[in-house]
Design a protein that fits this description.
heterodimer; A: alpha+beta; Uridine Diphospho-n-acetylenolpyruvylglucosamine Reductase, domain 2; 7-stranded antiparallel beta sheet; B: alpha+beta; Uridine Diphospho-n-acetylenolpyruvylglucosamine Reductase, domain 3; Alpha-Beta Plaits; 5-stranded antiparallel beta sheet; 4-stranded mixed beta sheet; 12 helices; 29% helix
Chain lengths: 477, 399
């Protein structure tokens, strides 16, 4: 039996995509710089389908790549070595909600925002809120350990996953963690969350739900420059406050947003806007707002606004979360970078990042999770322009090196994927990487599950094949 | 063993010391006390090459929370690993050596505006020990929430680092999670990057007696936003909930009003410390972690088996403390194990035996039921420690 007919036997004709025009939709995720065409895409309906598909792939000696909504930004869901993409969006059921114990059991294809919507009548929400939350799935969030603006107070996905059901790369189904999060033995859930789909395929997740806070206030601090806004961030953190969110958008982003459907009446001449959100008991929120106003004004805010109602709050957040979409107006392609630095280094690093963008003659804008020190320098470009593409890659590498030299890391929430695998050595020694590969071997000794991700290409001979890297026209280093 | 000891003495010199026998450790022939990662790496390479087992020891706070028997030949103490320390109170993070005591870090941070989110249970508890055993007190959440990075020496001698000082990081696999709570079975932690917490503006303690059917009422109070610690303790007339509220003044005052409406009264601080002291008392101790809504059911089962109960309703953790050891009475031991299992089942959770004599532990799994992940757990152990030299026999599945 051929691979395609074996796959068809599992998912039927309506769960199998093999025509070129269908497959091109899966040749990249949100990182369009790296591409890889799969041999087939399959859409399983349940965990048994997933197990059978994995076994078919193994029997035919082809790798497989789990994929959620494909909104990832590091190439994690791209079939860089070919093989079969196992797309999980049809497994989109909220299996169970336990309001009393504040948990939900969901299939991997449940859309992030849909879960919060479903449990809102119970006074609960699902806290991780990546900017793509209207489209991205819980399974993808687990694979990438997704964050979002509210990570500062509520943590990333790893803090909200209690248990997982996983199809291992040999087709075995295993449960790890539990409804209460407690594990017996090694913290396998902690190891799998953020493993970028390289240790198995999540078929069910038990996640923690969080009570909707009694009161929320969202503020804008309007600054003439991004450095002053960063100083305000340092003052808030150093002052012992833990806001729910602490975000900065720079002038280029402000203008892109104001030109788009996400316009929120932001002042176009502002150098930077600091968005702060606090939540909790009403009295506590009021006190925090006043303290933050003081910090912002001391750092040089020329204006401080507090959202007057829920509509205005929603408008502020639509502007923030729509920023990436708004940048689509600036150029055909967008390279959303992701790095983290110690918060106190933000002013100097931002200055360096802007200088790098200018020097490479690129349209670079910043919208980022300042409270976490998580930068997102965004480069708007046209990938059909080979020269510009080279400059984009070169600037990206320089930005990463600058962040690492400042004590930072190369990704805070997008993952390594194919995008940054060759930069892993900026942070890790061969022994460090070897320790990670030991974990990989315990789960996937034959390296069939989402190969070509995380580890530098030269770790494995197949990954040193430039054609398999998908960016052969643009040397990375 | 003698050849291994000679080689270790040559390599480590003064760091090889006479072994002082301690309860629950079995027969050990020497204590290795390396003061640097380099010395530790050398020791591990020698022991790995000679397939010589090591019993890891931090502060020795909970020596009998382990399977038995341990087949180690030497003890390996981490108390001398005290280099590399940085308290960054501007950033709210700290790099701490594994051998430093939790109490000493608390003292160092006094007045800084930040605190270490580890409970100082036991005067000798070390940073490395708390992280390796994922020991959780009453005030703070599990250590995994605070760990940002660490340095580890693997049983094969490699010195590795992962994570770091930044508070958000998805660069590569999250080995922090794998090593936290691995009870020293995968590698020896030498330093840890931790996220500190701002010192709360206001702290108040309150107590409230619980009605016989007060399970859900206690859970509601324990879930108040500023309730940093909420422990149900035995009371002459039943059970009492002790709460420590911590946060900004408005939040604490808001929650104090809710407590007063539920009949709570302010009380002297110290109740939580006393509960923490009790948590480490008693020769036989059980911990059940289950659904918060089922905490009272689990507590009833442990009480019926003769235990004093300390419960944290909001976290679903119920501890049963038996004031007497069952000795070698096999039926008594089996009854206690059965009670732990039954309580875990009632709460849809897991159980662990945090303390018991070697006799009581022999042939039993103190970490509870591993389930279908057992082959994966074994595979992980063998990847990192192929000769099973670290804490042999002590972790899950006698790994």
């Amino acid at each position: 039996m051929t691979l395609v007919s074996a796959l068809r036997a599992v998912v039927g004709d309506d769960g199998l995509l093999v025509r070129d025009e269908e497959l091109y939709a899966y040749e990249a995720d949100g990182l369009t710089l790296h591409r890889g065409l799969p041999a087939a895409v399959v859409l399983p309906r349940d965990k048994t389908d997933v197990q059978r598909l994995v076994r078919v792939c193994r029997a035919h000696g082809v790798p497989f790549v789990p994929r959620g909504a494909g909104t990832g930004l590091s190439g994690g869901a791209t079939a860089i070595e070919g093989g079969v993409v196992i797309e999980l969006q049809r497994m989109d059921r909220i299996v169970r909600v336990d309001a009393q114990d504040r948990l939900a059991v969901v299939q991997p294809g449940v859309v992030n925002a849909d879960l919060s919507k479903a449990v809102a009548p119970l006074g609960l929400f699902y806290a991780p809120d990546p900017s793509s939350q209207q489209a991205c799935t819980i399974g993808g969030n687990v694979a990438e350990n997704s964050g979002g603006p509210h990570t500062l107070k509520y943590g990333t996905t790893t803090d909200h996953v209690l248990g997982l059901e996983l199809v291992l790369p040999d087709g075995t189904l295993v449960r790890m963690g539990s409804d209460v999060g407690a594990a017996t033995g090694y913290d396998l859930v902690g190891a799998v969350v953020g493993s970028e789909g390289t240790l198995g395929i999540v078929t069910e997740a038990t996640v923690r739900l969080t009570p909707i806070p009694e009161s929320v206030a969202t503020m804008l601090g309007i600054f003439d420059g991004v450095v002053d806004a960063c100083r305000a961030v340092g003052a808030v953190i150093g002052g012992g406050l833990v806001p729910a969110a602490l975000e900065i958008i720079d002038q280029r982003t402000i203008n892109a947003v104001e030109d788009s459907r996400y316009a929120a009446g932001l002042p176009r001449d502002a150098g930077a806007i600091l968005i702060v959100e606090v939540d909790g008991a009403a009295g506590s929120v009021a006190a925090q707002v006043e303290r933050i106003r003081g910090f912002a004004e001391a750092a040089g805010a020329r204006e401080f606004r507090v959202a007057g109602d829920d509509d205005e709050r929603a408008r502020f957040w639509r502007a923030r979360k729509g920023a990436f979409g708004a940048m689509g107006r600036l150029a055909p392609d967008l390279y959303v970078h992701d790095a983290v630095v110690p918060r106190k280094k933000l002013p100097e690093i931002l200055a360096a990042v802007c200088e790098i963008g200018d020097r490479h003659r690129l349209k670079l804008s910043n919208v980022f999770h300042a409270g976490d020190g998580n930068l997102h320098p965004n480069i708007s470009f046209d990938r059909r322009d080979a020269d510009e593409r080279v400059r984009v890659i070169a600037a990206g590498e320089e930005i990463l090196r600058t962040c690492v030299e400042a004590g930072g890391v190369i990704t805070g929430e997008h993952g390594v994927g194919t995008e940054k695998r060759d930069y892993m050595r900026l942070l890790f020694s061969e022994d460090d990487l070897g320790a990670m590969i030991r974990l990989r071997h315990a789960f996937d000794p034959e390296r069939v599950c989402n190969p070509g991700k995380i580890f530098p290409a030269t770790r494995f001979c197949v990954e040193s094949d430039p054609k398999a890297r998908g960016y052969d026209e643009v040397p990375l280093s | 063993m003698r050849e291994a000891l000679s080689q270790l003495r040559r390599a480590l010199e003064d760091a090889v010391q006479e072994h002082e026998p301690r309860a629950d450790e079995g027969m050990l022939h020497a204590t290795l006390r390396p003061a640097s990662e380099e010395a530790l790496s050398q020791a591990l390479r020698i022991c790995h090459a000679r397939e010589t087992g090591l019993l890891l020891r931090g502060g020795g706070t909970e020596p009998s929370f382990a399977n038995a028997p341990c087949t180690a030949v030497f003890a390996l103490e981490t108390g001398a690993l005290t280099a590399d320390r940085e308290l960054d109170t501007e950033e709210g993070v700290a790099l701490l050596p594994a051998g430093e005591t939790v109490a000493s870090v608390h003292a160092s941070l006094a007045g800084s505006g930040f605190e270490l989110p580890f409970d100082a249970t036991g005067a000798h508890a070390t940073i490395g020990g708390v992280v390796a055993s994922a020991r959780q007190g009453f005030r703070y959440g599990p250590p995994r929430d605070a760990v940002l990075g660490m340095s580890v020496v693997l049983p094969t001698g490699e010195r590795i680092r992962f994570g770091g000082r930044v508070v958000k990081n998805v660069t590569g696999y999250d080995l922090n999670k794998l090593f936290t709570g691995s009870f020293g079975s995968l590698g020896v932690i030498t330093t840890v990057w931790l996220r500190l917490r701002p010192v709360p503006e206001c702290v108040e303690t309150h107590r409230v007696r619980l009605a016989d059917d007060g399970g859900s009422a206690a859970l509601g109070l324990a879930r108040l936003g500023s309730a940093r610690a909420a422990v149900v303790v035995p009371d002459p007339e039943g059970r009492e909930l002790q709460l420590e509220l911590a946060g900004d003044a408005a939040s604490v005052s808001n929650d104090a009003a809710a407590l007063a409406a539920a009949g709570a009264t302010p009380c002297d601080p110290g109740g939580v410390e006393e509960a923490a002291r009790q948590r480490l008392s008693g020769p036989f101790r059980v911990r059940v972690t289950g659904l918060p809504s089922a905490w009272a059911g689990a507590a009833d089962i442990l009480e019926a088996a003769g235990a004093r109960v300390l419960a944290e309703p909001a976290r679903g953790i119920v501890r049963g403390i038996f004031d007497d050891g069952p000795g070698d009475d096999e039926r008594a031991i089996a009854r206690r194990w059965a009670a732990a299992r039954a309580a875990a089942r009632r709460a849809s959770g897991t159980y662990a035996i945090e303390a018991a004599s070697i006799d009581a532990r022999l042939g039993r799994e103190v970490f509870g039921d591993v389930g279908a992940s057992a082959p994966l757990q074994r595979a992980i152990k063998l990847q990192y420690d192929p000769h099973r030299i670290l804490n042999p026999g002590r972790f899950v599945g006698n790994a």
